[in-house]
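In the current project phase, our protein records have gained a structure token line. A sample record follows, to show the layout:
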Amino acid sequence: MDARTPEFCILMTATISPSVSEHMNIVRRDPEIRRRDYEDALRFWLSKRRPWISAIVFAENSGANLDSLAQIVAEENPAGLPVDFISCSFSPPPPGMHYGYSEVSLICHALRVSERLRETKYFIKATGRYIFPDIDHLVKSLPADFDVAVDSKQSRFWSRDRHYFTHFALAVFRTRFFGEFLIDLPSQMVPAPPWTRAQFIETVLYDKLRELPPSTRIIMRWGVNCEPVGVGANGDRYGTTKKKIQGCIRSICRFIFPKLWI
């Protein structure tokens, strides 16, 4: 490992059995299908000896049984990584709130209850059903010292309906910074109506980071691509040929037009 590369705890967020009220927003909602997604993603994080991973915390918020995941850790963990499981049962998000509210609430809960997570200098928050084949490339591109590294974009740059937001499938935080400046993110989300930027963690996080003082070391746009592979909650399939071509074009544009999102 490069001496400049810090160690990271991987925080995998999970909802194996989405609540009934969330079904209006979630297409991929079968608990057994979702469980297999989480199992495959856990294998991904365990499969290679990545010296920059100090530990994994798997946090699940629907009260589901995690025995199958614990068995994977026991049998398929070549690097012997410590893995902690957090199991809790959250109420559905308030009506008029995007399901990202539950995910950021789970992160805050994990920080409160996991000593291992609190003691790590940095953590990588990863939506637990996805894998990220280019994660090593992203980690190597990060500076030795920073507070937040997220990937933000301007949506629909070709139309008049433009808005900025931060992708939340993968994000990197200094643990102390998150606890000081971002732990109150759920309380800053406001249920609709009306539908505004306040119902979505992607826009609430973006706006919060832009408000912080210039002294904070915030990376709002990665220099490399690190896109997910998997099936989104809304049914979108990442990792298809079309998505790969799109990713290649996006990767080139990061160097030529750094602020342009394709």
Observations:
- Residues 8-237 form a domain with the Spore Coat Polysaccharide Biosynthesis Protein SpsA; Chain A fold (CATH 3.90.550.10).
- Residues 31-47 form the longest helix (17 residues).
